[in-house]
Amino acid sequence: MSSSERLRRLLALVPYVINRSSVSVEEAAAAFGVTEKQIIDDLNLLWCVELRAPDPYCPIDLSYEGGEIVVCEAESISRPLRLDVDEAAALLVALRTIAEIPEHGDAVSRVIAKLEEAAGAAARPSSQVAVELDVHPDVLVQVRSGLDQGRRLRMTYYVPGRDENTVRDVDPMRLLIVDGWSYLEGWCRRAEAVRLFRLDRIVDLQVLDVPSSIPEEAEPLDLDDGLFRPSPEDVRVTFELSPAGRWVADHYPCESVTELGEGRVRVVLRTRDVRWVRRLALRLAGSGRITEPADLAAHVREDAARALKLYDA
Amino acid sequence: MSRRKTERLLNLVVCLLATRRYLTAEQIRQAVPGYPGGDEAFKRMFERDKEELRELGIPLEMGSDGDEEAGYRIQRQAYELPEIQLTPDEAAVLGLAARVWHRASLAEAASGALLKLRAAGIDTDEAASLGVEPRVGADEPAFPALWRAVRDRRSVTFEYQGVGRSGPQRRHLEPWGVVSRRGRWYVAGHDRDRGETRVFRLSRIRGEVVADGPAGAVTVPEGVDLREVVTSMGGPAPARRTATVRLRRGAADGIRRWAANIRRDDDEWDLAELTFAEVERLADYLAGFADDVVVVDPPDIRDAMIQHLKAVCQ
Predict the structure, then answer these.
(1) Would you state the pLDDT for residue B236?
(2) Which of A298, B16, B212, B251 is most enclosed, with most CB atoms within 10 A?
(3) Which residues of B touch A108 (CB under 8 A)?
């Protein structure tokens, strides 16, 4: 632990206790995310604060008898330190992001106003960070009402990989906004599995008059490792990209990215469904080609040749 | 980290908060336990300590009372978080806000802020839900350095691998702000090499972002809308035109989602109109649908499609 991190905690611990009259060591440890032993070390350190001149005195008086912390005297550090620019920005930008969610309630704008006032000048740079969400308010509000009422949804959902609208019944589990995109997580009765549906791909939606019924084995997805989950059945596809096709490396989760010099790059993608990769190769044309597997590369050329024939007439 | 150092810094903060008068370095040395005897060693340690306090955001003030020797103090009013009262629903929203940042340098700042607000007596533990929780990642390696530059109004330089470039190029930017759009981070500002407003994608920055100008030197133009700058990628939007395409019946659902005026042409095909701005982009996009789409008009798109498909066949 760095000294500044600990100092930060020490300066917050005193007002934390003062504002609550007394706090148990256990509660303080939980609030600050450290062990009880660490809190006791902190209290001992605070208790040792002394000034030697002009007259020696100990400005902090506290006790933790019976595991209950009481601060009797701590005049100079009885209030927490102001928010710094980073702290004010982290909260304010997050709050303004939440404010983009439809029907977020007026508490959000009240907190923003109060926090801006409390942070003062430190709040200013927060306006230089912005997060744009893709919320699709109409769909989101409808999905949320299905979720709140525990009712099944019937949706027409566009699957870009297959270029197909599909109709399916989904029992909604939760709404997510991850990295700017909104998703519904739910039990898809067609796939009989937990699936994520991007709200911008929901073409049509009905809240059915049927209660949703989510099987016990339906586990919410763990999002800590991102939304893309490789599976053993995946096909590995290798692309060689020219400088103009480099965006592919930014856009899709790649298993490997190898620079080939002159701005060219080789990427390996993993996919369960090669149809979208075929589309991608058709889009890229000269700026990227599939080198492996060879039969997939041949299919792409055949697709293009068939399309080209339509212009012969 | 050593306990002695934390103890000394804490003593220093308490000492400087307790004084109304400016204390000279010598007075501080007398009052605060833990400083070494030697003058040089004291000076070095005191300098480092002052720097640490500033990094923590503690407003260390330098000045003098009348014509006395210059000294230091911390004004209570500048140090203390002002009184802030939140209703339970407001506090709950605050807890939600602190969870927005995911694997990001701002996540740490958010928990630091929450800690101070809790210390001020606010309870943020209550479960808040708007039925949806946004999560935003800012784990791009270039993010922390660019945010610091934006915050401190300093110009920066970095190597940038632009799409369509054969190698990374050194760029010089006066950054105005960072924007996340569709899950990707961008920095917008004044490009000093081009003399124009430019937008850079953080994931395409190679290596370190280095501040190459003094703090406070960058001026963000009055009334600039960062999101707008990023959406338009620094340039004006090209004029929009309309293309007529044939869509295979029962197919090309992706195009049908945004096409206008879809009508039957014959047994095999429908006709539809598409609004577009850039010929190349439209041709790239339509090529993905292979033989489910044919461009009828205008001729430049038709030609672009033919060239594009020929390139795939080669």
Answers:
(1) 60
(2) B16
(3) 93
Residue of chain B whose Cα is closest to the Cα of A277: B288
Interface probe with B: pick from A40, A91, A197, most Cβ of B within 10 Å:
A91
* Model confidence, pTM: 0.84
Q: What whole-number distance in Å separates Cα of residue A17 and Cα of residue A63?
A: 11
Mean pLDDT by 10 residues, chain A (313 residues): 82 92 90 91 88 78 87 85 94 92 84 94 92 86 90 92 89 87 90 89 92 85 67 85 88 86 88 86 90 90 92 79
ipTM here: 0.86
Q: Which residues of B touch A176 (CB under 8 A)?
A: 132-133, 135
The chain B residue lying nearest A45, using CA atoms, is B7
* Angstroms from B70 CA to nearest CA on chain A: 18
pLDDT digits (tens, 9 = 90+) for A95-133: 999 888 877 778 899 999 999 999 999 999 999 999 988
